[in-house]
Amino acid sequence: MRRREFITLIGGATAWPIYALAQQRDLVRRIGVLMNKAANDPLSPNEIAILLGGLQERGWTPGGNLEIEYRWSAGDANLYRKYAAELVALAPDVILAVGGTTVGALQQVTRTVPIVFVEVTDPVNRGLVTSLARPGGNATGFTQFEFSIAGKWLELLKQIAPNVTRVAVIRDPGQFSGIGEVAAIQAMAPSLGVEVSPVDARDASDIDRAITLVARNSNGGLIVTASASAVRHRELIITLAAQHRLPAVYYFRYFVTGGGLISYGPDPVDPFRRAAEYVDRILKGEKAADLPVQAATKYELVINLKAAKALGLTIPLAVLSRADEVIE
Q1: CATH number of the domain that 259 lies in?
Q2: Which member of 77, 149, 164, 227 has the greatest number of CB atoms within 10 A?
Q3: Are 32 and 68 in a shared domain?
Q4: Do residues 101 and 77 make contact, with C-beta atoms less than 8 angstroms apart?
Q5: Distance of CA 29 to CAs 2, 32, 116, 164, 279, Å?
Q6: 87 touches 114 (CB < 8 A)
Q7: Residue 55 has pLDDT above 80, yes or no
Q8: Residues 185 and 272 in one domain
């Protein structure tokens, strides 16, 4: 073998591992995750575990062929904006966003990075997508529920506490979904002989003041609408409702497993499992604009009999028979 050929061969052999390593690095994909809860919220590990399990089933291994950047906004509007900018600056291949406010903050920063969302109500009217069938922009995902479900919360409250005539509806004034939920409750109220009062409550002091005020009137009840604030302060809400002996209806089961009376709403972790499929499809080349927004498919009625007993309530058999879970 001639010297020149030998040097060329050795040079090629040296360059090959470098080229191979570069290819391996190219195979690693990056996703961002912007949560609307705090990192130390007891709910967070389960939601993340469900998401990671779905990704691993599809061949994505964190620390292997997948890098994940997490940010936790804890329902803070300033953190939504800050962390949205941080994640987009990292140039991820796709971002998972929890909650409509989170998606809105991201879309103020980017209209190109794909976004898969969960826990969003009415994404069309809030301008996050063009339509459910053809989102048309950089976002798609899984809706939380339709506003009409809020009317069922009031029906449930009257079924389990028929003496209730005044209902305070706790809402976060900065939350888009609260408007539609309150409207659905108010539309149902006359037929049930109930007076409904929307109560704005964004932080702990607002919530304490609002529930204490409701408790001053007899025959009062409580409905808690969906918001990151309600999730963040759920222990306070549950404690105050029990302390003031107010029957309360919630929208997610974890309020009831945490001591609340009754909830009716979608399975809160199932969307994270379904979101893993959309993240996978986008990482493999599909566009968010072409993936239809999907509605919740699993709804559950959860009842806490211990909480009912403490309030002196007897849950009707017609309601108990429909329950997906009864806590005794």
Answers
A1: 3.40.50.2300
A2: 227
A3: yes
A4: yes
A5: 44, 10, 16, 54, 11
A6: no
A7: yes
A8: no
What would the two tokens of residue 206 be? 């607002």
pTM of the model: 0.86
Residue with tokens 């996050």: 128
Query: Given this model, what pLDDT does residue 224 score?
Result: 95
**Rounded Cα–Cα distance for residues 313 and 307 (Å):** 9
3-state secondary structure 127-152: CCCCCCCCCCCCEEEEECCCCCHHHH
Per-residue pLDDT tens for 137-186? 999 999 998 888 999 999 999 999 999 999 999 998 877 777 889 999 99
C-beta of residue 107 within 8 angstroms of C-beta of residue 128: yes
| Same-domain pairing of 62 and 135 | yes
Residue labelled with tokens 């976004």: 115
Q: In angstroms, what is the C-alpha Rg of the chain?
A: 24
- In the chain the first and final C-alpha atoms are separated, in Å, by 84
Q: How many whole angstroms separate alpha carbon 83 and alpha carbon 71?
A: 6
Strands 262-266 and 299-304, how do they pair? antiparallel
Question: Range of 118's domain?
Answer: 7-144+268-297
Structure tokens at 264: 């009716």
The candidate with the shortest Cα–Cα distance to 301, out of 269, 261, 271, is: 261
DSSP β-bridge partners for residue 171: 200
Structural domains counted in the chain: 2
